[in-house]
Amino acid sequence: MCGRKEGEWRAMREQFATGSVSRKRGYARQYEYLVLTVGPTESMPAARQRLTEHAEYGKWELERSCLYVGGGRQFWLRRRIMRVERTA
Q1: Predicted pLDDT at 51
Q2: First and final C-alpha spacing in the chain
Q3: Burial 49-84 (b: 16+ CB within 10 A, else e)
Q4: Which of 3, 4, 27, 37 is at 20 to 30 A from 83, Cα to Cα?
Q5: Which residue ranges make up each domain of the chain?
Q6: CA separation, residue 50 to residues 12, 71, 88 (Å)
Q7: If DSSP states are collapsed to H, E and C, what string results for 13-46?
Q8: Dist CA 88 CA 84 (whole Å)
Q9: Using an 8 Å Cβ cutoff, are 29 and 3 in contact?
Q10: Average pLDDT of 4-32?
Q11: CA distance 60 to 78
């Protein structure tokens, strides 16, 4: 299990995780993460709708998901941190 105890689920919630750096082909990419937790009593179509909205409007992509023994789910979404440089 991924760190949850039985009966510890709450309603669907979102939480930002700290950004991490992953190295790919010699250069660093930075991402910010959003963790979406869905309890076993929540409907899967509602969770799917929420994931779709984040992907479509917030430019998030699904990195991984975890299905727990009790029926709860956790989804990790990520997006690149855009660095803006001044042109003046």
Answers
A1: 92
A2: 52
A3: ebbeebeeeeebeeeeeeebeeebbbbbbbbeeeee
A4: 37
A5: 13-19+29-80
A6: 10, 18, 39
A7: EEEEEEEEEEEECCEEEEEEEEEEEECCCCCHHH
A8: 12
A9: no
A10: 58
A11: 5
Q: Which two tokens stand for residue 74?
A: 């956790």
Which amino acid makes up residue 34?
A: L
At 5 the pLDDT is 52
Who's near 63: CB < 8 A, 6+ residues apart? 33, 76, 77, 78
CB atoms within 10 A of CB 36: 20
Q: Which residue type does 68 have? A: Y
Distance of CA 88 to the CA centre of its chain: 36
Output the six-digit token pair for 85.
């440089």
Show the tokens assigned to 60: 């998030």
Torsion of CA 57, 16, 66, 45, to 10 degrees: -40
pLDDT in tens, 24-73: 543 446 888 899 999 999 999 999 999 999 999 998 999 999 999 999 99
